Amino acid sequence: MSNRNREVYIVDGARTPFLKAKGKPGPYSGADLAVNAGRELLARQPFSPEAIGEVVIGSVMPGPEEANIGRIISLRLGCGKEVPAWTVQRNCAAGLQAIDSALKDIATGRHDLVLAGGTEAMSHAPLLFNQKMVNWLAAWYSAKTFPAKLAMVPKFRPAFLAPVIALLKGLTDPLNGLSMGQTAENLAYRYNITRDEMDEFSVMSHQRLAKAIDEGYLREVTTLYDSRGNFYEHDDGLRRDSSVEKLAKLRPFFDKKFGNVTPGNSSQVTDGAALVLMASADAVKQYDLPVLGKIKDVNWAGVDPAEMGLGPVNAITPMLQRNQLSKNDIDAWEINEAFAAQVIGCLRAWEDKDYCAKNFGMSEAFGSIPLDKLNIDGGAIAIGHPVGASGARIVLRLLHILKRQQAKRGVASLCIGGGQGGAILIENVSEVA
After folding, report:
1. Angle at CA 172, nearest 5°, toward 168 and 174?
2. 429 pLDDT exceeds 50?
3. Burial, 13: exposed, middle or buried (Cβ in 10 Å; 0-12, 13-18, 19+)?
């Protein structure tokens, strides 16, 4: 029982450049991406990979040859056959779930060093046979004789070949039938968010990412190399020439008649991985590790799936209340930019006295979050949103922002398809207590 409340630190991290899907499978599988990030991360540590207690990886759509992708990544990184590894899935927050799972294992004394994070090769999402084709094939393979198989031929229909697009299925709520973009349209309608507001927010995301790259802030990004000698140094979804005028030319995608959510003010379908190295105080002292920050709390919340974008509000607010903190105590905020309308919707909900009273028992509205403290180095609209990796990416970026600004506290959060939100509270420290 003496180990039940150990403090947990993040001591290092790395991520790949996020590569925008371009209509065909990209050059890397999910495991390839994570191994590229993890190899450089582990190479600079003063201990061998075998010293890691476990590996926890978030991934939503691992490939058919990547069952328990966490284990595959662990073995490929040289952690050894004796190091346990596992995979978690919480849709858009799978990477944050991996960090939370590792947090609990370190806090309870199971491990002292854990490699956690997430990976996703969204461009590799499969095309599947529909049910009619599956049934026809089942009957075909069940036919034992040539005449029996021949009798199956007239029953085949070309329509059986219509594929099921796994990516679209994965981005659609199975209970209410709404795509994630349609849930963003719901928030835009509820809070009167205009097209101009969405596009202005999106341009800001690109401008901030461009500045972060030019200023050399994204030091956690490792160069990717492929088998043909090509290499990728930066997130390639960045549009430096983005403007409200250019975005205004794009047509609504999710509600073509009445909507305002377009590909330009939405996150990009992307491939990428992000990993963090987590440690107990004992491990920090044993290996003399630098400290990026300390995890103070994690919180999860459920919301109406039709308004899943409000998940960050419902995850962050109770977490701050539990820690007796107000918005003024937070120096930097990372809210994953699934859609511009979704992030703006969160800001409006915090400004809504009735919403805060109903959901959090507050007598006043939570209040406004200054934009200069939100997604300071850009967000998923410019960077991309490989769903398994984004939770780890925003945590790692938040840690570096707090260091750069010599600030004390930060919050990172994501909305989650299916109607959830996840949030983490980070404190900037340089050494263990």
Report:
1. 125
2. yes
3. buried
pTM exceeds 0.90: yes
Q: How far apart are CA 399 and CA 410, in angstroms?
A: 8
The pair of three-digit structure tokens given for residue 120, joined into one six-digit string: 């996703």
For residue 93, what are its two tokens? 């927050």
What is the C-alpha to C-alpha distance for residues 44 and 51, in angstroms, rounded to an integer?
Answer: 14
- pLDDT average, residue stretch 352-374: 96
Catalytic hit among 124, 206, 385, 400: 385
Which domains does the chain show, CATH number per domain?
Answer: 130-166 (no CATH), 180-217+296-427 (3.40.47.10)
DSSP labels for 151-164? HHGGG--GGGGPPE
Helix H or strand E encompassing 87: strand 85-88
Is 206 one of the annotated active-site residues of the chain? no
Active site residue 79: no
- Convert the pLDDT of each residue in 246-293 to its tens digit: 999 999 988 888 899 999 999 999 999 999 999 999 999 999 999 999
The pLDDT mean for the chain works out to 94
Count of residues in the chain: 433
415 as an active site residue: the answer is yes
- The one catalytic residue in 79, 92, 346, 356 is 92
Answer for the pair 370, 384: CB distance below 8 angstroms, yes or no.
no
Structure tokens at 332: 């930097």
Does pLDDT of 2 surpass 60?
no
Measured distance between the N- and C-terminal CA atoms of the chain, rounded to whole angstroms = 20
